[in-house]
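Re-running Transcription initiation factor TFIID subunit 5 to confirm reproducibility after the cluster update. Everything else is unchanged from the original entry.
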Amino acid sequence: MEEDIKPDIKPVIDEAQKEPDDKKTSLCVALKILKKYNLNSTAETLKKEANLTDSAYNTSEHDVNNALNIFKSQGDPSVYENAYITLSKFVETSLDIYKHELGCVLYPVFVHMYLDLVCNRYEAEALKFMKKFGPEQESYYQADIQNLAIITKKEELEDNALISNYKSNEFVVRMSRDTLSLLKRHLKEKKQTVLLDIVQENLFFDVYEGIARNKQQIDAVAGGMIGEGTRQDNKSRVYYGLLKEPDLQTAAATVNLDEDEEETQESEKPKKKKSKSNPLLSKKTKIDPNAPPLDRMPLPQLREIDKKIKVQAVLDSAKRVALNHETLPSICCYTLLNCSNAVNCATISDDATMLAVGMANSRVRVWSLVPQKLRAMKTADQLLDIDLESDDVMHRILDDRSAETTRTLLGHYGPVYQVSFSPDKTLLLSCSEDCTIRLWSLLLWSCVVAYKGSYHPVFDVKFSLHGYYFATSSRDRTARLWATDNYQSLRLFSGHFSDVDCCQFHPNSNYIATGSSDRTVRLWDCVTGEQVRLMTGHKGEILTLCFSNEGRILASAGNDCNVLLWDIAHGHLVVMLTGHKGPIYTMTFSRDSTILATGSHDCKIMLWDYSKLLEDLSLDDMNVHNPTVMNNGSKYLLRAFGTKNSPVIHLFFSRRNIMFCVCSFNSPQSN
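Result of re-run:
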C-alpha cells in the first residue's frame, strides 16, 4: 500500500504552524508591519479598503505571529543547522528497530537545506553547512555531494542537471508505517517549519505494513540518485519466459544432406545415408506460462539461413560440456597487444568465428578466429553468373581472392564505444562519440546505414537475439529501440536521471534493460514503451548487464565492483556477489546456466556457481515484500583467474561451453 507524504503527513502540522496564505492573514501581516513603522494612517486606510474590523484583526493575531515566525526562520541561516542537528539526534536516539529507516531521511534533508541556503544567498553559511554535515552522509552519496559543493551561488543553480533532478523529483524513502508514525510525532513536537516544508515538498514515503527493515536490507537497495524505487514501479506484469522455438526438422534435413555431400567428396566410396532423425530437433519444447504471446512483439520471419543457423546451434549443443563446481570451463584468451588505452570494446559472434573490436581512434577492426578468412562479395559482373536459387549461394557470392585475416572498417569520426554482431553474422553495429550508430555489411565490408537519434554520444548498442531490432543507450539519458530498415528509432525510453551507460535485450526480445550513472537499473517494454521495473542497489555507475538464459534473472555490475542479481518477476534484488577490486566491464552466463563469469579492470576473471545459487534462492518461496538479499561472495565463487596486466573487456561462452576472453594488455610503461 503506497502513500504519498503530502496527504499523510500534513495532519501532524499543528494548525498554529500552518503557513497562512489566505487574504485575511496576509492583510493582517501587512497591517502589523505598517504599525511597526508608525505608518498608522496608511494602516487605517488599508483596513477601511479591505473591510477588516478590529475584532477580525485581533482574531488573526496568532496567525500573524506564526507567519512572521515562518518568514524569520527562512531568513535566519542558523535555523537550518539547528533543525538538521535536532533531526540527526532524534535518529541516533531512536530505537534500533526504527533507527535505520529514519536515517534514510537525513540525506535528502541535507541536500535541500543546502540548496535553500544557496538559493537565499547565504554562501558562507551554505559552505559551513556542507563541510560540517557532508562527510557524515553515506559513502555512495559522496560523489553527488562533491558535485553539489561546487554550487555556491544562486545563479549556478540554473541549468544544472543534478540540481534539476533534486528540485523536480521527490526523493523516495521506503518506510514502515510504525517508523513513519514516529517521524510524524517528532515533527509535530519540534514544530520546525524549515524541516516540515522540506519533508512535505521534497520527500515521498512509500509506506508498507510490517516490521521495519534492518540496516542490511536498507543498504542493499540504497544508493539511487533520488532514492529507492517504489513498489508501484514494479507492479506491472513482465513476461520473462522464452518464446517457443520453431520446427527445425526440415532445415535439419538440409544441413544433414550438406554434411553427407561433404563426406562423399572426401571419401572414395559413397557412404550409406544415415537416419536423419535427431532427438534434439524432434523434441517438442514446452509452452512457458510466463512467455509472451507469439504475436505480442512482431518478430521477423525466419529465413532458411536462419533456420540452418539454429539447427547448427542445436547440434553443437549436443557436444556441449556439462559444467559444474568440479568441471570448470576451458578458457581461450585473446590479448590485444600494443594498444594500451586504445581499445574501448570487443565482441565475439555467436558461433565464435569472428571478433570485432572498437577502437579509440574511431576504427572498427574485425578478425577471423577460424582458418577460414574474411571474404568480400564478388563484383556485380561476377554475380550475374551465379545461380541465386542454389543452396550454397552465400558461399558462391564470396570472392576467395579477397580473403583476409583481419579487416578495418572506417567511417566513425570519434571513439567507438560498442560493437554488436547480428545473429546471422552478415551485419555489424557500432556506436560512437560522434553521436551515430553505423550498420556495417560483413559481405561488402562497408557502412550501409548511419543512424542518428540524438546529439549526444552513444555509449552502447545491442542486436536482438532474433535480429532485425537493436537497442542503443546514450548520454542524453535515454535508450532507444531501432529496426535495421528504419532511419528513425521506433521507441524512446526516457526516465533515467543521468547517462544511460549500457543496455541489453531480454532473450525473448520483448524487453530492454538499461543501466545508468544514476545508479538504477530499469526494464522497458518494447511494445508499449513504458518502464515496467525500477531497481536500485548499485553504489556506482552501471557498466554491464546480462540476462540469464531462462530470462528471469538479470545480472548487473559496474564501478562499485559488485555483481547484483535481480528477479525481474518482482523487481527485487536477490543476490550480491563481491570479490572484484576494480570496475566490472563484462559478464556472461554459461550456455547450460550453471556458471556466471565476470571480468574486471582488476585483471581477473571470476567464475560463480550460478546453479547452487539458484538452489539456495528458492525464488518461488521468496518473501516478495521484504526479500532477504544474499551477500556471501566467497560461498559461490568457484575460482578466480588472473591475467598479466590485461583488463578483461569481454567474456563469451561458445555453444559448447568453451569460454572466450578478450583482454587489452597495458604495459607497465604506459601506466
